[in-house]
Amino acid sequence: MKSIILFLLVAGVATGQPFPPPSPACDIPAIYNFGDSNSDTGGIAAAFYPPGPPSGETFFKRPVGRASDGRLIIDFIAEKLGLPYLSAYLDSIKANYTHGANFATGGATIKRVNESWFVNDVSPFSLDIQVEQFNQFKDRTIYLFNQAKDDSQRHNLPRPDDFMKAIYTIDIGQNDLAYVFRTIGVEAARAAIPDIIDQLASCIRQLYGKGARSFWIHNTGPIGCLPVTHAKIVNPARGYLDENGCVSGQNLIANEFNEKLRARVVQLRSDLPKAILTYVDMYSAKSQLISNAKNLGFEERFMICCGYHDRDHDIYCGNQGKINGSEVFAGSCKDPTKVISWDGVHYSDAANKWIANQITYGLFSDPPLSIIEICPENKGVSNLSRA
Ligand SMILES: *[C@@H]1O[C@H](CO)[C@@H](O)[C@H](O)[C@H]1NC(C)=O
Ligand SMILES: *[C@@H]1O[C@H](CO)[C@@H](O)[C@H](O)[C@H]1NC(C)=O
Ligand SMILES: *[C@@H]1O[C@H](CO)[C@@H](O)[C@H](O)[C@H]1NC(C)=O
Ligand SMILES: *[C@@H]1O[C@H](CO)[C@@H](O)[C@H](O)[C@H]1NC(C)=O
């Protein structure tokens, strides 16, 4: 991915760096990321069909395997840490893993489900598989690194010592909730949550067993606010929507998931004594953006920049479809930098930038540390038991 990375660096200079030059309080040399389309930087695109135009148009100026017009939150995290954007583990073309790897794939769930990419766009690379891929990645890159005769043979491999110093970022759960909603329904969804959280905790333990020490765990966003869902609502019953106009039942379940996740992270802090675990309240960050859309310079909160959705139609971003008998192409809006939702499900570059700014400074984390300060050496510096 060298050419892309060089290109990005140029683009980064041209558009101005969103963050001051990083001066990390500790050495965080790599990022290992796990998750779904919210942080997939090219995994599912490499494995199946890459998204076509207009994805990537705002920042990268071409499709780069991301479900957005530009950068994802994980890209802004990389910028904040002064590291290059992550190559997807599944990308065999010019990938560069010197500063980490991305195991996230669009459509991924925490628990394995009885669906596939061809049924409801579920990724075959569920979180447990992503952890397996990490294990293989770690073992094989360490072997190759040690076999190499000189640095020229190590040009895209991570340094073995960096696995322990790396930050392990996790953003997953939304697709598990969506799966539960469409199989057993929103009312019964609560009962499915404990198993999902158990599985997530088990994956974190496995990574810890492989030497991971610093975890940055995003909770799940307000799934009831997704504009694709909103576009289908006609004559909602009283109480069906919350004060933001989001589907309250779905958001209630997302909150329930997040409460259980938060409690489990607290538990994991005592179970995994050498780890520093940060719980990041992505739900609140995204909700603040949605409810303050206008004040923050965005268009109407449920506007979709790319794609056409109403009660009877779903023409996803970059696809062709028929509306009222005429063939239409779902292209993008005039100014994607003013819209929160890129495609009705995923956030725009501008929205991701706002969210990333909030969360990387520690405004939504427990403990409330900036991402550049979370490293095992700083364990105990702040109030880690804060629940
Ligand atoms: C998937 O299908 C198998 C076999 O029919 C069944 O045992 C299992 O419970 C199903 N899993 C889920 C999550 O529905
Ligand atoms: C991989 O990325 C690192 C850091 O950005 C860079 O120094 C190295 O030259 C790259 N390797 C290749 C093969 O492009
Ligand atoms: C399709 O036709 C209906 C009925 O004439 C109209 O109300 C609607 O706005 C049309 N939709 C689009 C996207 O043009
Ligand atoms: C840590 O946080 C808890 C709960 O907010 C509080 O009761 C306790 O006093 C704090 N401890 C320190 C050392 O700040």
UniProtKB/TrEMBL annotation:
Residues spanning the signal sequence: 1-16
Organism field: Tagetes erecta
Gene3D superfamilies for this protein: SGNH hydrolase (3.40.50.1110)
GO molecular function, one term: hydrolase activity, acting on ester bonds
Record keywords, A-Z: Glycoprotein, Hydrolase, Signal
InterPro entries for this protein: GDSL (IPR001087), SGNH_hydro_sf (IPR036514), SGNH_plant_lipase-like (IPR035669)
Listed name of the protein: Uncharacterized protein
Keyword Glycoprotein: yes
A Pfam family matched in the record: Lipase_GDSL
UniProt record similarity statement: Belongs to the 'GDSL' lipolytic enzyme family.
